[in-house]
Amino acid sequence: MAIITDQTTFNNTYWTSKSPGKNALRLMQGSPKRMQAALLLAQAGEIVDVEIDAYGWDPFSTMQERQADGYIWTLSALMAQPVDGNGIPTTNAFSTLPIPAMGIKVSTDSADYPPFAQAGPAYDPAVLWVGAYIIDNTFNTTAAAKAMQASATPIPTGYIVNEKGHIFKAFVPTTPGDNGVLVPLWNDMVWIMQT
Length: 195
Prior knowledge:
The protein is α+β, with helices and mostly antiparallel strands. It contains 6 helices and 9 strands; from the N terminus they run H-H-H-H-H-E-E-E-E-H-E-E-E-E-E.
């Protein structure tokens, strides 16, 4: 167990453990689209900490405040507020175990924040991978993304990025091959905007 007591160290550890989509939220500080993008990430299945990921609160200060309040866990974006035996909303549940499946552990322990390991290449939010609009919610890839597709670590289907104020998921169209194994339908990957 390694409790982090330095704000900068904890914040760097926190963000290193998060997906490229969540890290892109940091670039949206002060933007009204940040909340919408955080909601889209939650709807895509990510566990979103509303105060930190959506509102942009400081991770270290937020976790310390929660610990001072006796919290062991807190709600993620799409969880319902716990209620007591009379059906009245309560925060008492946040100081009891077990932590629900979508709950967020309140901790400043580095062991609770392992580096994020999304299958595929490392994502740099400064290099755009989502290209021009095609039709409906579908977008082309940029030259940078095409180069990545030809590399040793191509972008897999399902890879999530946050660009242009939206969440996009990579999609490589496939069709069953002669032996039943899926093969690419065409060479280019596309991005599907998640709405």
